DNA sequence: AATGCGGGGCG
DNA sequence: CGCCCAGCATT
């Protein structure tokens, strides 16, 4: 965890002085830095979300020509607006921008609200953008914590909180709250972001050129490379299954016990088959098996289901034509997608079932351990089929 | 806490 | 070419 006391008053003042002097010398000339017009700052900050400065500049200039005021933005026709954003991506940003402009016309008398609390009520403005506008336009000492700032601050104070976790943002906001310049919070925030993009870069930071390296704890210790701590979200690997929900004439369901080792060991599920076994002859839509449009393709899949059931269980179910909507279940390292087919069998001959399989009545399900995916399959069945007769 | 949104840069 | 990036809203 982070320490809560960072620098003495003197060190804090010393840092601000050095840092702001550097910013004054080195800051880039950008169209939205010409003045402190809150509208310009707002639009630029929205455009800069997930978008590089060089990309934003021409869009910003064009946007300001087309919609020079909040009122003009609020009244802009949808197609003109979208056209002005074309190519920037994340189009909900521009829709929210206009929603907020309308909100400002109606609730704030056409003037940008001037407190952090009010600014943050606007659509598309979260914690970062609130801090950016409040500090840059109104001189409020509000942190504006984005990825750059978390990186810089984590190195300055050797903060080990994982910046990939949403709740870590709070730690960095508190740290910024402690060190932000009360005299010039807007430039302080912008200096943080400039430093992060120019010098205190993710890879190969230019510490020897850094204006504040004498304040940097990780630089002093030679541990800059350890920061920020950022967990890689190990992408859960997708695995596709077909689930068989087989009911016999006594109302019992076929359950299968999983192997004694490995994932979900010894737990019970409806039989699961790797999807490829059913679909090696067909193309599966992105949304899963239940989105197969062609009757013919469905028939091929059904035929494969039949063969699989015969081979493994000596059962000959009558299947529904389409599977239930695909179920998702996320493990740490795997993401299961299961398309369940419901089928009925007449035969009650149990002798041919494999040893790890049983027909079980729902009354007795509580005696069996069901893992998450099985709970979801069961719920999906009950929702779609279990009710109706 | 996890996911979708859309481009661009990078290996 | 696929992988990763990162604020915000939504769920």
From TrEMBL:
<keyword id="KW-0408">Iron</keyword>
<dbReference type="GO" id="GO:0034039">
    <property type="term" value="F:8-oxo-7,8-dihydroguanine DNA N-glycosylase activity"/>
</dbReference>
<keyword id="KW-0234">DNA repair</keyword>
<feature type="domain" description="HhH-GPD">
    <location>
        <begin position="47"/>
        <end position="198"/>
    </location>
</feature>
<dbReference type="InterPro" id="IPR044298">
    <property type="entry name" value="MIG/MutY"/>
</dbReference>
<dbReference type="Pfam" id="PF10576">
    <property type="entry name" value="EndIII_4Fe-2S"/>
</dbReference>
<keyword id="KW-0227">DNA damage</keyword>
<keyword id="KW-0479">Metal-binding</keyword>
<comment type="similarity">
    <text>Belongs to the Nth/MutY family.</text>
</comment>
<protein>
    <recommendedName>
        <fullName>Adenine DNA glycosylase</fullName>
        <ecNumber>3.2.2.31</ecNumber>
    </recommendedName>
</protein>
<dbReference type="Pfam" id="PF14815">
    <property type="entry name" value="NUDIX_4"/>
</dbReference>
<dbReference type="GO" id="GO:0006298">
    <property type="term" value="P:mismatch repair"/>
</dbReference>
<keyword id="KW-0378">Hydrolase</keyword>
<dbReference type="Pfam" id="PF00730">
    <property type="entry name" value="HhH-GPD"/>
</dbReference>
<dbReference type="InterPro" id="IPR029119">
    <property type="entry name" value="MutY_C"/>
</dbReference>
<dbReference type="GO" id="GO:0051539">
    <property type="term" value="F:4 iron, 4 sulfur cluster binding"/>
</dbReference>
<dbReference type="GO" id="GO:0000701">
    <property type="term" value="F:purine-specific mismatch base pair DNA N-glycosylase activity"/>
</dbReference>
<dbReference type="GO" id="GO:0046872">
    <property type="term" value="F:metal ion binding"/>
</dbReference>
<keyword id="KW-0004">4Fe-4S</keyword>
<dbReference type="InterPro" id="IPR003651">
    <property type="entry name" value="Endonuclease3_FeS-loop_motif"/>
</dbReference>
<dbReference type="GO" id="GO:0006284">
    <property type="term" value="P:base-excision repair"/>
</dbReference>
<keyword id="KW-0326">Glycosidase</keyword>
<dbReference type="InterPro" id="IPR011257">
    <property type="entry name" value="DNA_glycosylase"/>
</dbReference>
<dbReference type="GO" id="GO:0035485">
    <property type="term" value="F:adenine/guanine mispair binding"/>
</dbReference>
<dbReference type="GO" id="GO:0032357">
    <property type="term" value="F:oxidized purine DNA binding"/>
</dbReference>
<dbReference type="InterPro" id="IPR023170">
    <property type="entry name" value="HhH_base_excis_C"/>
</dbReference>
<dbReference type="InterPro" id="IPR005760">
    <property type="entry name" value="A/G_AdeGlyc_MutY"/>
</dbReference>
<dbReference type="InterPro" id="IPR015797">
    <property type="entry name" value="NUDIX_hydrolase-like_dom_sf"/>
</dbReference>
<dbReference type="InterPro" id="IPR003265">
    <property type="entry name" value="HhH-GPD_domain"/>
</dbReference>
<keyword id="KW-0411">Iron-sulfur</keyword>
<comment type="function">
    <text>Adenine glycosylase active on G-A mispairs. MutY also corrects error-prone DNA synthesis past GO lesions which are due to the oxidatively damaged form of guanine: 7,8-dihydro-8-oxoguanine (8-oxo-dGTP).</text>
</comment>
């Amino acid at each position: 965890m982070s320490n809560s006391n960072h620098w003495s008053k003197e060190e804090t003042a010393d840092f601000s002085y050095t840092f702001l002097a550097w910013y004054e010398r080195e800051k880039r000339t950008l169209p939205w830095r010409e003045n402190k017009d809150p509208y310009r700052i707002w639009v630029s900050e929205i455009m800069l979300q997930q978008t590089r400065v060089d990309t934003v500049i021409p869009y910003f200039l064009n946007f300001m020509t087309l919609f020079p005021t909040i009122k003009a933005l609020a009244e802009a026709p949808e197609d003109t607006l979208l056209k002005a954003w074309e190519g920037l991506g994340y189009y909900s940003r521009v829709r929210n921008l206009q929603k907020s402009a309308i909100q400002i016309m109606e609730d704030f008398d056409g003037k940008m609200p001037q407190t952090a609390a009010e600014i943050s009520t606007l659509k598309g403005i979260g914690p970062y953008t609130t801090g950016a506008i409040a500090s840059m336009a109104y001189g409020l000492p509000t942190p504006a914590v984005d990825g750059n700032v978390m990186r810089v601050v984590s190195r300055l104070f050797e903060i080990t909180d994982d910046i990939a976790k949403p709740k870590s943002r709070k730690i960095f906001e508190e740290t910024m709250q402690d060190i932000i310049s009360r005299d010039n919070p807007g430039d302080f925030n912008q200096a943080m972001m400039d430093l992060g993009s120019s010098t205190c870069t993710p890879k190969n930071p230019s510490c020897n050129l850094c204006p504040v390296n004498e304040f940097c704890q990780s630089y002093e210790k030679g541990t800059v490379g350890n920061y920020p701590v950022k967990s890689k979200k190990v992408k859960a690997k997708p695995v596709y299954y077909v689930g068989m929900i087989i009911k016999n004439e006594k109302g019992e369901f076929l359950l299968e016990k999983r192997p004694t080792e490995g994932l979900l060991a010894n737990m019970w599920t409806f039989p699961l088959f790797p999807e490829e076994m059913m679909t090696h002859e067909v193309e599966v839509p992105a949304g899963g098996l239940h989105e197969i449009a062609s009757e013919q393709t469905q028939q091929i899949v059904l035929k494969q289901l039949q063969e699989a059931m015969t081979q493994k269980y000596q059962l000959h179910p009558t299947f529904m034509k389409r599977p239930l909507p695909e179920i998702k279940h996320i493990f740490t390292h795997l993401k299961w997608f299961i398309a369940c087919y419901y089928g009925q069998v007449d035969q009650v001959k149990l002798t041919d079932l494999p040893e790890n399989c049983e027909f079980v009545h729902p009354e007795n399900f509580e005696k069996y351990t069901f893992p998450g995916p099985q709970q979801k399959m069961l719920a999906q069945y009950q929702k779609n089929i279990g009710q109706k007769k």
